[in-house]
Amino acid sequence: MKIAILSHDSNIYSTRRLREAGEQRGHEMYVIDYLRCYMNITSHKPMVIYGGKPLEGFDAVIPRIGASQTFYGTAVVRQFEMMDVFTANESQAISRSRDKLRCLQLLAREGIGLPVSGFAHSTKDIDGLINTVGGAPLVIKLLEGTQGIGVVLTETYQAAKSVIEAFRGLNANILVQEFIQEAKGADLRCFVINERVVASMKRQALEGEFRSNLHRGGTAEKVKLTPEERSTAVRAAKAMGLKVAGVDLLRSNHGPVVMEVNSSPGLEGIEKATGTDVPGKIIEFLEKIATKGNSRDRIQG
């Protein structure tokens, strides 16, 4: 197979491991900087052009689109879809997961467990918003934040009100969520491929920190999921339309709740914590699916 990895940086761990995994299984692997791609958008022969040459003959694409480049990155993925190239995650599914509010609304529609969440526009409605979520302590999140950046724990009503006023004063869109205190600074990262959890780890925040992101100094270890946690992760990925996803859960008193669904989950932390060859499983998934008919048949089916 001829497989393209859409990545802005060929040297990062996830991109390198995907390339290695594909080459080890005998495939032609190409790392393409999607920000350097440009497109010929026509009805009869749509093209993606890179380095002055059309990208042709690809069997599959693995999108590794950065959060800050979602608009252009998904446009490139969509162009490959127009060319009937199979994409590990479709452009629409990536866009859904990147919009945190839309993501929560879609998960709620499917009856998937979530922390109590609120969203408002006017600062005149702050009191009602805080009360709707259940009062302090609560977590305030920037909708555009990633890797724990723009996530604030407010322990009092007045602190919550001040932070919301400050963010809205900057015209930033925010989510307000209940604080799942019983999680004790830990969350579960479930790696889902084609409606199956292939690896899972527990991430633990540093003492005095509530954000468990590994980028913020958290630690990780392999964890065994309950059947309910496994089912929740699979249902969350399916609700987004993602075939490859990292689903973050918290263990709450009322069962597992989804915090985030990531369309380009990092591979380093989960590989080191679990010893699972996750990139190899992604390539194996492509081998099974990408050769079965063209992408439009799969999308319509």
UniProtKB/TrEMBL annotation:
Q: Does the keyword Magnesium apply?
A: yes
Q: What is the lineage of its organism?
A: Bacteria, Bacillati, Cyanobacteriota, Cyanophyceae, Oscillatoriophycideae
Ranges for the ATP-grasp domain? 104-287
InterPro entries recorded: ATP-grasp, ATP-grasp_RimK-type, ATP_grasp_subdomain_1, RimK, Rimk_N, Rp_bS6_RimK/Lys_biosynth_LsyX
Tell me the residue numbers annotated for binding Mn(2+) 1. 248, 260
Query: What is the name of the protein in this document?
Result: Probable alpha-L-glutamate ligase
Q: Which domain of life is it from?
A: Bacteria
Q: Which family does it belong to?
A: In the C-terminal section; belongs to the RimK family.
Query: Which amino acid positions bind Mn(2+) 2, per UniProt?
Result: 260, 262
- Gene Ontology molecular-function annotations: ATP binding; metal ion binding; ribosomal S6-glutamic acid ligase activity
EC number(s) on record? 6.3.2.-
Q: Identify the keywords attached in UniProt to this record, alphabetized.
A: ATP-binding, Ligase, Magnesium, Manganese, Metal-binding, Nucleotide-binding, Protein biosynthesis
Q: Which GO terms describe its cellular component?
A: cytoplasm
Q: Name one Pfam family in it.
A: RimK
| Binding of Mg(2+) 2, residues | 260, 262
Annotated residues for binding of ATP: 141, 178-179, 187, 211-213
Names of the cofactor(s): Mg(2+); Mn(2+)
For Mg(2+) 1, which residues are the binding ones?
A: 248, 260
**Cofactor, how bound (note):** Binds 2 magnesium or manganese ions per subunit.
